[in-house]
Amino acid sequence: MIPSANAKLAFDELVRVWGSRPKVYRHGDEAERNFVNVAHLQGSPVAGVTAVATLGLSDHDLGLGPVRVELIGAFPSSFEQGVNIAATCAFNAIKDGVRTAPDAIHPSVVALYRSNPALPHIMLVDPFLWDDGPATIDAGGFKVAWLMMVPISQSERVFAVENGGAALTSRFEKAQIDIFNLDRPSVV
Questions:
Q1: What is the pLDDT of residues 128-137, one digit of tens each?
Q2: 18-59 pLDDT, tens digit each
Q3: 106-117, pLDDT tens digit by residue?
Q4: Pairing of strands 143-152, 35-42
Q5: The overall pTM is greater than 0.90
Q6: Measured in Å, how far apart are the chain's first and last C-alpha atoms?
Q7: DSSP state of 4
């Protein structure tokens, strides 16, 4: 179920990038007042991984001027909560005003779905997992940009707050982290 023109454009972009039509599920907040769709596709970008993305977060003005946002990410297929993480980050932005921009951190999101996680938080970065996108979408009057959800540790969160998300991302690149490993060691 795709509710808006923005979500339809985002869906079409996911089909292009992921190379297949994802399944889409509607998620509601606890009060069932706010809804967001989350797409997911197993085997993207590699086998054993499930890609997830919001569809409809871009219907909400998050205070980024002429830019709206959709979230994208990938989690081990054995961890079936990736769609819930995407929905929770969307509701954090819509309902609670949690900053949803490059290098922003959504605290304790993974911890809601995994006991004692090594990587309890989500940091938002420019997408890099898929060779050709996802691309920014012209939605008539504003642009829809994509932010990728990356699980991070508590010490990585502190480091990013003190030094900036770019400094943490640089450490990720230097360490060649396994982005799909929810138990990977912290880089700081």
A1: 999 898 999 9
A2: 999 999 999 998 888 888 999 999 999 999 999 999 999 999
A3: 999 999 999 999
A4: unpaired
A5: yes
A6: 42
A7: S
- If one counts every other C-beta atom within 10 angstroms of the C-beta of residue 68, the result is 21
Query: How far does CA 164 lie from the centroid of its chain?
Result: 19
C-alpha of 143 from chain center: 17
Long-range contacts of residues 135-143, Cβ cutoff 8 Å, at least 24 apart: 135/13, 137/6, 137/9, 137/10, 137/13, 139/5, 139/6, 139/9, 139/58, 139/68, 141/66, 142/66, 142/67, 142/68, 143/66, 143/67, 143/68
Question: Are 3 and 37 contacting, i.e. CB atoms less than 8 angstroms apart?
Answer: yes
What are the domain boundaries of the chain?
A: 5-98+124-150
Q: How many residues does the chain have?
A: 188
